[in-house]
Specification:
globular; Calcineurin-like_PHP; alpha/beta; Metallo-depent_PP-like; 210 residues; 3-stranded antiparallel β-sheet; 4-stranded parallel β-sheet
């Protein structure tokens, strides 16, 4: 009886090792499909928006029946034959808690990760990104990332209102004291997209701010 049990557990161990090997091979195959290089915007890249992109509530009412959202536990592992995107946005400077994010292959941050784009906010956000385990982090700026907006920083005083002038002066002073010309350069732990595209796992991601 003991001998049979030993044989059973030995076979079980081999099967587990074989299953783990197959899973590892599938995982490597999935990873090898990643194209890390940014793709320049050109005639070969077409981006089509939904007809109701200006009214996301209406668009969702139309799409939700075909794309149902299923509740998922935060610790749900990623299946080896799947690619998971984890999407967040509008954190407005609040530190990201890794415990609040499920695991995934790509973390997509859709803007407004600061209150106004101060260098110390961007540095804090970048540091937190470096602590997350998602292999790829893709970041797109929002309207709150004012120091990412070159047109705003270069606009003449005639083009800005008094509040905008005061905000720009404060931001430029902060950038000068931090000895940086552009806050975008502080994002070292992610792929930053600004009117540009990148292909990950065979999926093309186009990012445009504001």
């Amino acid at each position: 009886m003991f001998s049979n049990s030993s044989s059973f557990f030995g076979t079980s161990s081999v099967l587990k090792e074989q299953a783990a090997l197959r899973e590892s091979e599938r995982h490597r195959a999935k990873r090898s499909s990643v194209r890390k290089e940014s793709l320049p915007i050109g005639s070969n890249v077409n981006v089509f928006t939904h007809q109701y992109t200006a009214d996301p509530t209406l668009a969702w009412e139309m799409l939700k029946e075909k794309r149902p959202v299923k509740p998922m536990k935060l610790d749900t592992p990623v299946r080896p034959d799947h690619v998971r995107f984890v999407c967040i946005g509008c954190t407005h400077g609040v530190k990201i808690d890794p415990a609040d994010l499920p695991p995934g292959d790509v973390l997509l941050v859709a803007g407004d990760f600061t209150t106004c784009g101060l260098p110390n906010e961007v540095l804090s956000f970048n540091k937190k990104l470096g602590q997350l385990r998602h292999p790829y982090k893709v970041v797109i700026a929002g309207n709150h990332e004012c120091t990412f907006d070159d047109m705003f920083l270069r606009a003449s005083s005639r083009e800005l209102q008094a509040k905008e002038m005061a905000l720009r002066q404060a931001l430029q002073s902060s950038m000068a004291s931090s000895k940086i010309a552009n806050s975008k350069s502080l994002l070292t732990n992610c792929i930053y997209l600004e009117d540009s595209v990148i292909e990950l796992f065979g999926i093309t991601i186009y990012g445009t701010p504001w």
